[in-house]
Amino acid sequence: MSRAEGEVAARPTLAAVARAAGVSASTASLAFSGAGPVSDETRSRVLAVAADLGYGGPDPRARSLRRGRSGIVGAVLEDTLSNAFRDPINVAMLDGIADVTGPADNSLLLLTETEGEHTRLLDAPVDALVLFGCSTRLDASVSTVRRRGIPLVSIEAPPMEGVLDIGEDNVGASRLLAQHLHDLGHRRVAVVALELGPGRETGDITDARVAAGTTWPALERLRGTRLVYPDAGGLVTRGSWTSEGHRAGTQLLDVPASERPTAIIAQSDLLASGVIAAAADLGLSVPGDLSVVGYDGVRLDDPRAADLTTVVQPAVEKGRAAGRAVLALLAGEAATGTIFTSVFRPGSTTAPPRA
Amino acid sequence: MSRAEGEVAARPTLAAVARAAGVSASTASLAFSGAGPVSDETRSRVLAVAADLGYGGPDPRARSLRRGRSGIVGAVLEDTLSNAFRDPINVAMLDGIADVTGPADNSLLLLTETEGEHTRLLDAPVDALVLFGCSTRLDASVSTVRRRGIPLVSIEAPPMEGVLDIGEDNVGASRLLAQHLHDLGHRRVAVVALELGPGRETGDITDARVAAGTTWPALERLRGTRLVYPDAGGLVTRGSWTSEGHRAGTQLLDVPASERPTAIIAQSDLLASGVIAAAADLGLSVPGDLSVVGYDGVRLDDPRAADLTTVVQPAVEKGRAAGRAVLALLAGEAATGTIFTSVFRPGSTTAPPRA
DNA sequence: TTGTAGGCGTTATCAA
DNA sequence: TTGATAACGCCTACAA
Q: Per-residue confidence at B304, pLDDT binned at 50, 70, 90?
């Protein structure tokens, strides 16, 4: 009936190691953390005993509590992982965050914010949260999460109380692209827009849809486009995927030549790539029969889209800025939002319209 | 000199809320967790007081310690996030894991296992770890991590003590593809291989490189291929990216026709897509001048690669299996590894060799 | 250089 | 239905 019987698989604790090594718990702690003076002899004895007992080091959970930090930054995505990561922009931003927070011993926790599921956001042991939402719908979650009193940083989100935003001049960059087309002489243009809201409803770009839209970058980009082409219409897609661009492109282009747009403004490079493929399928040459512009400047693996006229958004830099903001806020320093500017990158997919 | 001075931003604790509401801490706890009988009146009073004090709910860190669970599953990737997520297979597997562990209130922590950096693996407050490594190099980390006594699950890794593997019959599937080409009459084939090790050294597939290789699936796939083409050679790439396939393809194909392979066995669909692009650039038709097979069966956004002859690997299912294994192990149940089988999917990129 | 004491914020157990 | 008590495992002043 010895106590050992019930302790078969119980992981030993630091206290147990200390006891077995004949030192106090605090000494054993120092032996592991190296955060204080311990004689080499003592340390190695503790370590040896630990190895002997199969002790794998201090329990991170206990350490979290004691230190008041978990070393985890949450990344809140608004979609399934597959969808979120299909867009290289998101991955690049994530990488940027990790690039900055990693060296400070933080890891990234993936949190998906599916409809009405705030629980995980509230229960996750994160020190800070980065919102990839881009959607005003996040507002509801945010107000709940804000109460936790942890730093909140968003990337390209609409302004939210208590949230530091890392933004981008979507309007300006979109206007630049539109102006470029206008300067070339295009007068009949169509927009292939990103999803406008969580419902991912497709169809024409209508005033109603725009009014109900929640996806900040999509709305801002449209706004920028309309500074040049006030009446620009087009199609809403389900998201930034080549296949969606192909679908929308086909629908816009498979019409009599007289009604066909001479230029298409895709709201992402992935969409643009799909549009170009659609044009090719219909026997239309780019930029001869159709000019196409994108948005993002990601390095697309598709060679045909390699030389796309687009604006390059500093995605990794944006991630880094978000990471820096997180670290600053965690350190109790003041941090301010940043607004990045995308750079126009002329490619070979735009030219004056035919005749 | 009142105590309040120093407590400006201190988040209130459950105890503080309880005190203010005139109940015991345990009752307040129940009011939040709902894990016990509390009168409606009491609960609402507690909640009201909490709202009043700006208490955002129980601290997850403390909860982790008390419960002995953090609700976090670590995903160990062997690369930067950008590189790891460029391959849709990894994303799909991640999604599969999340699909299973998510409903059980677990989130995914991204851990990258860069050279010699075991620290984070050891310090992260995870309940279990899923290794995406695929590399025997992981062995070192594993032996350290194993001591933590948490469930360890790997996906397509070489057999490791104390690690449950979710595998795949790479050898069999690769042999199938090779046999398919052989049956069509191909005798001069070349392999475009995945990276063989962490160094991502490129060059010819040599015995030395193979012997030094650590990337399990790449080695296994090559082994399967050589069951049919014992002397099959080719090139090693830096990883599963279209651009790498393009580079390798160009190198293999841009030679006199007499030396040119009549078929290329790419070890991933992404690589195959690049090879096809390279063939197109060289004016070679697929499958007329060149047959190409891939591996993975991911839905590539590139339309030209859409109808690739390949084997479809159940990536999401593999992720789910890993997730289930994790949950089972966490529940203290026995769990066994699984070996999935990829399914041959004939496409339009293979045909008999010319003349 | 080492040990002592106390608490991080919560929840499980048990008794009232 | 509520409350008292005792951990969970560790770390950090501070004292020795």
A: low
Is the pLDDT confidence value at A8 over 80? Answer: no
What is the Cα–Cα distance from B161 to A210, expressed in whole angstroms?
56
* Tens-place pLDDT, residues A231-289: 999 999 999 998 999 999 999 999 999 999 999 999 999 999 999 999 999 999 999 99
CA dist., res. B47 & res. B42, Å (int): 9
Tokens read off for A29: 């702690």
Confidence of residue B9 (pLDDT cuts 50, 70, 90): low
CA of B130 to C1' of D12 (A): 34
At A171-207, the pLDDT tens digits run 999 999 999 999 999 999 999 999 998 788 999 999 9
Whole-structure pTM value: 0.91
Query: Nearest to residue A86, comparing CAs of A289, A230, A243?
Result: A243
**Which positions in strand C are less than 7 Å from the protein's CB atoms?**
1-13
Cα A279 from Cα A277, distance rounded (Å): 5
> Of A62-66, A102-106, B10-14, which range is least confident?
B10-14
Residue B36 CB lies within 7 Å of the nucleic strand D: yes
| Cβ proximity of B171 and B223 under 8 Å | yes
Residues 6+ away with beta carbon under 8 Å from B175? B224, B225, B227, B228
* CA of residue A18 to C1' of nucleotide D9, angstroms: 13
Residues of A with CB below 8 A from B245's CB?
Answer: none
CA–CA separation, A195 and A262 (whole Å): 23
Chain B, 254 to 293: residues with Cβ < 8 Å from chain A are 270, 273-274, 277, 281
* Residues B148, A56: C-beta atoms closer than 8 Å: yes
Query: What is d(CA A85, CA A66) in angstroms, rounded to the nearest whole number?
Result: 35
Q: Which residue do the tokens 């063989």 mark? A: B196
Contact call for B125 and A94, based on CB within 8 A: no
From residue B120, how far is each of A72, A106, A109, B329 by CA, in Å? 11, 8, 13, 22
Region B178-205 average pLDDT: 95
Average pLDDT, chain B: 90
Give the pLDDT confidence of A48-65 residue by residue, as tens digits.
999 999 898 999 999 999
Sheet holding A107-112, edge to edge: A338-340, A164-168, A152-155, A128-131, A72-77, A107-112, B107-112, B72-77, B128-131, B152-155, B164-168, B338-340
The per-residue b/e assignment along B22-42, b for 16 or more CB within 10 angstroms, e otherwise, is ebeeebbbbbbeeeeebeeeb
Q: Which domains does chain B have, with CATH numbers?
A: 3-58 (1.10.260.40), 70-168+315-340 (3.40.50.2300), 170-313 (3.40.50.2300)
pLDDT value of position B38: 87
CA distance A35 to chain B (A): 16
Q: Which of residues 161-190 of A touch strand C (CB under 7 A)?
A: none
Closest CA to B328 of B175, B133, B127: B127
